[in-house]
């Protein structure tokens, strides 16, 4: 099951590792897994080697498309300005050479004017003044263009980040619950989420490299005109540095990749220790010191590895840089010797030395920049490989059935068995029962019996591992899953408490009707949420939850009433409440059920409850035990049968006596 689903979902993912990627000691990762039972696995190892790295470069074109689409005018202006800037350095240097040659010429004139005023008056310095003005104008232009470019690219980066985040959220919405619950997927999602903002520098980097390349070509042409082999010498002395950079970039990525699970664990511990969600328990159980210690331990291990790479990188980098500098001074000595021999002018010397220095810096920047871009492209793989993850639930492209309106026969479970992804245990097995159209059934059973799992299968959040579920005689898989879910209103026991307004919390049941206040009010009245809203200072517009300023926290039962209203927001053909009244007081519970009965009349509904007083209101009760239907019938029939139902009912009834 696992390998099948993983293959299906992540078909174009990097290949699974035969051995661990460079960086993390495996024992450490294994320890991490043992410590937190639910700790996610690391997922596929980082791509290694030249082939994988060049494969990661394939993400550059789609990324550039993403950049272009984020804002064509901004992207076009950035490119144009970069190109113009590319040729400014050589122009500046050349004008500088002309200035020096002119100064040398003027200095050698007989009968030179003795003051600046006389120089200007004589007109002898006109050409020099013009050259200085030209250099000044070029310097100003360079500065202005530089700022405009960084403004354009900064704005573009923000747009790209927004576009990537939107694409990420949209894509995540197309994936299945089973995919989300997979720890490997969660690692992948985490990496992708980081990349929506983390890869922004690559825009400036690629653009900067294109600019540097153009500048380099201009300098190389100038230098090659004097001595082509000097250019070759420069390139050769820089190669070791380039290879070193490439190697360390790759290692750093491999580490970051392999440590995704641990990074998530670190974030989890930090969030638990310093987040509002667990604050209550952290205080009561005095978990602060324990969590800080765990954080310190995890963080230390994480950062020791990155420090090690940084240290080696610095040492080798210094060595390679010294080699490059050696090449530079050898060439410099050659040019000076030529000037001394009178083969070139002083202006030529400054031009060549300047060109040479710039060329060296450019070559260095380009080579290491290329390696950095390749490294960034490795991270892009995180983003784009997420976009390639596909939903695991089969969706035949065509001929999807619409939801039957009205339902004729209802749902039928035929020998259904289900194992959660990654689990060897059957959550439910050999399930065969009918949920007839218009009928209300109750699912009862002890914890872990499989009640919620049945509901998830019914809503097609998962597909049965074996057997099949039909709706009006057709396999559930033949229906359009979105249409199916649109007609099924489920409120899960672990419903989400959204940090939104009270009205929006109800409207999530039918988000397109979020501005339909009368509808929201009606749903609130039906679920008793209207009483909750009446007590809020800003009524329906009150922000609920404590996450944001002005938010008002609700009690468990009050949240539950808001959640139940979601079910009434949709005109669902099938209504499912999974332990909807666990937090409600006795009066509210009785009332909620009375209303549920009224509102579900004529609709197909499923009620999950541990309270028998509620379950007995159903037309039929299914008693589940260890993932199987143990018995079914009406309340009276099941009591007469003296099975588990009668036993549990008696236990509960005794508690009230
Ligand atoms: N997401 C999941 N991944 C793996 N196993 C799961 C998952 N959810 C539930 N299970 C397992 O499936 C079995 C059935 O769980 P289910 O939630 O359906 O029980 P339930 O009858 O609704 O229990 P309760 O009364 O406690 O709500 C349990 O053994 C549980 O451990």
Automatic annotation (TrEMBL):
Spell out the residue ranges making up region: Disordered.
Answer: 1-52
The record ties this protein, via SMART domains, to: AAA (SM00382)
Q: Which PROSITE patterns match?
A: ABC_TM1F (PS50929), ABC_TRANSPORTER_1 (PS00211), ABC_TRANSPORTER_2 (PS50893)
Give residue ranges for domain ABC transmembrane type-1. 78-375
Recorded GO molecular functions are:
ABC-type oligopeptide transporter activity; ATP binding; ATP hydrolysis activity
Segments traversing the membrane: 314-331
Task: List the source organism.
Answer: Plantimonas leprariae
Family annotation (Gene3D superfamilies): ABC transporter type 1, transmembrane domain, P-loop containing nucleotide triphosphate hydrolases
What protein name does the entry list?
ABC transporter ATP-binding protein
- GO cellular component terms listed in the entry, alphabetical order: plasma membrane
All copies of the ABC transporter domain together span 411-651
Q: Where is the signal peptide?
A: none
Specify the domain of life of the species encoding this protein.
Bacteria
Q: Which lineage do the record's taxonomy fields give for this organism?
A: Bacteria, Pseudomonadati, Pseudomonadota, Alphaproteobacteria, Hyphomicrobiales
Which terms are listed as keywords in the entry? Answer: ATP-binding, Cell membrane, Membrane, Nucleotide-binding, Sugar transport, Transmembrane, Transmembrane helix, Transport
Q: Family, per the entry?
A: Belongs to the ABC transporter superfamily.
Task: Give the way it sits in the membrane.
Answer: Multi-pass membrane protein
The record's subcellular locations are: Cell membrane
A Pfam family this protein belongs to?
ABC_tran
Instruction: Tell me where it mainly resides.
Output: membrane
